[in-house]
Amino acid sequence: MIEINNFIGGKNVASETDNFMSLSKPTTGEEYAKVPITTKKEFNKVIEEMKMAQLEWAETALTKRSSILFKFKNLIEKNFDEIATIISNEHGKVFSDAKGSLQRGLEVVDFACGIPHLLKGSHSINVGTNVDSFDIRQPLGISAGITPFNFPAMVPMWMFPISIACGNAFLLKPSEKVPQCSMKLAELFSEAGLPDNILNIIHGDKSVVDFILQSPDIASVSFVGSTPVAQYIYSQSAKYNKKVQALGGAKNHMVIMEDANLEDAVNGLIGAAFGSAGERCMATSVALPVGKIQKPFMELLMKKANSIKVGSSLDPNSEMGPLITKEHKAKVLKFIESGVSEGAKLEMDGRDISLQGFENGNFVGPTIFNNVTKDMTIYKEEIFGPVLSVVNVNSYKDAIDHVNGHEYGNGTSVYTSNGNIARDFMKNVEIGMVGINIPIPVPMAFYSFGGWKGSIFGGSGMHGEEGINFYTRRKTITSKWADSVTDTSLIMPTMK
Ligand code: NAD
Fold first, then answer.
1. Is 148 in the pocket of ligand 1 (CB under 6 A)?
2. How many domains does the chain have?
3. Rounded distance, CA 68 to CA 222, Å?
4. Among 5, 13, 24, which residue's Cα sits nearest to residue 360?
5. Tell me, what's the pLDDT at 486?
6. Residues 296 and 270 in one domain
7. Measured from the CB, is residue 403 less than 6 Å from ligand 1?
8. Which atom of ligand 1 has the smallest separation from the CA of 225?
9. Residue to probe by mutation, ligand 1, list 150, 201, 247, 282, most atoms within 8 Å of CB
10. Is residue 375 part of a domain?
11. d(CA 225, ligand 1 centre) in Å
């Protein structure tokens, strides 16, 4: 059994707690580590150290900050496969998928390397007589991040590179289900030259989240996770007057129009519905084939879903790994039972999958329901597993009503060859991230990531312009230097 450490002051530090949570490998079920629940005393000490370090970091030249970020980027590239292996082992996603998610995180570091440019303010000369006005962006102080299990590297990397580039110190509380990957990232950032106590990691559960929320020394909270917890984080942050961005759950729909390229749509859907075993906030969990395409769509979907190879995360032939925990597997199985009992047609049943040598892993095979309706539990709730609901609709209007009527608003996509439909969809859909003939429309690092409706609280998305805005405070200065213009010959030499 490994004991997971905290990362404080540039090194691994064993927690003083006697309170631990146990961790099991998703692929085999074998118990392998214990995760500390950091104490209040340790938390208070960490915050004191971060306060001091942040003051100095905020004075560090932008070019110096940028050069440390460049070194960090190079170190991630050098250690890429090792980090992706940690992700696969602790999360269970297959190696190719783990590498893809790390690449998306790396792109945020790449974006943050441009911090000297990104922090440029504005300046207006003579807004009044001899009066100038300008904006500057200043750091917040200490910012905190609370992250989910499903992207052990990428989601923390949406946050800390930008926060730190902006001159803040960052305290991360990663998911207790995947505590190791962010430790490796912090070690590499430290090796790149990041001063001690600018990125610290403490582990724990709700009790540690509450230390963060209630601390008067933490200026902002970035959260990604389930909607009920996002709502809690949002309301508590408001209570303690913190800046907050809280991204929640999702139920993403894909619309397949009669004129769609069916092969492309189904290929995209297979990856979007079953990649990472459906444990993605941008996973497609509802397909809406429109009108005559329904029959050929279903035939092709079944054919392709049948050939998905489920297996151990590090087997290069696997395309889909296990779910995160036994408890989560039980929850997904209960959703499947509810689909059956509420009358959906179970076309593909992933419940009885058994893999030789991995009998205790948390595997559920691809599962497909047809004839799903709006009132069913499997339609209304986020399952976060490899379960796809097909809702047959007769018109484009019916499809868009489904998308807009759902409580979540994270991502959606439409497959069509009709530009008018694509444009109407892009304009009228009430969703934050929209794909047109693209199954998983995750914005690049220089755009911002975030949904609408029940998928976000606090309004601010991650990275891109919204990330820079979130991790800085704007200050607007209005200044007058009247005496400096008395001798006009100094400022207008050509008029002598
Ligand atoms: P979760 O909400 O259970 O946990 C997220 C974090 O909150 C963890 O660090 C956890 O320790 C902490 N936490 C858990 N319960 C808490 C409580 N009662 N009070 C305070 N803190 C608590 O989420 P998860 O199961 O780790 O991740 C899956 C969820 O995250 C899904 O709903 C998924 O859609 C969502 N997600 C959303 C996005 C997005 O960008 N919108 C991205 C990834 C994941």
1. yes
2. 2
3. 23
4. 24
5. 57
6. yes
7. no
8. 30
9. 150
10. yes
11. 3
Residue for token pair 């991040």: 145
Which among 244, 224, 34 is positioned nearest to 148, based on CA atoms?
A: 224
CA–CA gap between residue 363 and residue 355 (Å, rounded): 8
What pLDDT does 402 receive? 98
Q: From the CB of 175, is ligand 1 less than 6 Å away? A: yes
332-343 residue pLDDT tens: 999 999 999 999
Answer yes or no: do 357 and 425 share one domain.
Answer: yes
Residue type, 63: T
d(CA 174, CA 208): 11
| Rounded (10°) CA dihedral 159, 433, 98, 460 | 10
Same domain, 237 and 271: no
Confidence class for position 482, pLDDT limits 50, 70, 90: confident
Judgement on whether residues 127 and 140 belong to the same structural domain of the protein:
yes
- 125 and 231 fall within a common domain: yes
- Tell me if 330 is assigned to some domain: yes
Tokens in use for 210?
């509450």
Q: Specify whether 202 is located in the same domain as 274.
A: no
How far is residue 88's CA from residue 280's CA, in Å, rounded to a whole number? Answer: 14
Q: Looking at residue 338, which CATH number applies to its domain?
A: 3.40.309.10
Answer whether residue 367 is part of any domain.
Answer: yes
If you measure from the C-alpha of residue 454 to the centroid of ligand 1, how many angstroms do you get, rounded to a whole number?
Answer: 14
Q: Which domain holds residue 392?
A: 252-436
Tokens encoding 490: 């100094």
Check whether residue 205 and residue 298 sit in a common domain.
no
Kind plus residue range of the DSSP H or E element containing 238? helix 227-239
Q: How far, in Å, from the CA of 213 to the mean position of ligand 1?
A: 15
* Of 177, 202, 209, best ligand 1 pocket probe by most atoms within 8 Å of the beta carbon: 209
pLDDT digits (tens, 9 = 90+) for 301-313: 999 999 999 999 8
Q: What is the pLDDT of residue 485?
A: 56
- pLDDT band at residue 488 using 50, 70 and 90 as cut-offs: low
Instruction: State the CB neighbour count (10 A cutoff) for residue 130.
Output: 14
**Is there an atom of ligand 1 within 6 Å of 249 CB?**
yes
- Would residue 65 count as lying in a domain? yes
pTM of the model: 0.96
Cα 234 to ligand 1 centroid, rounded to whole Å: 13
Same-domain status, 227 and 372: no
Does the CB atom of residue 209 touch ligand 1 within 6 A? yes
- Position 272 scores a pLDDT of 98
281 in catalytic set: yes
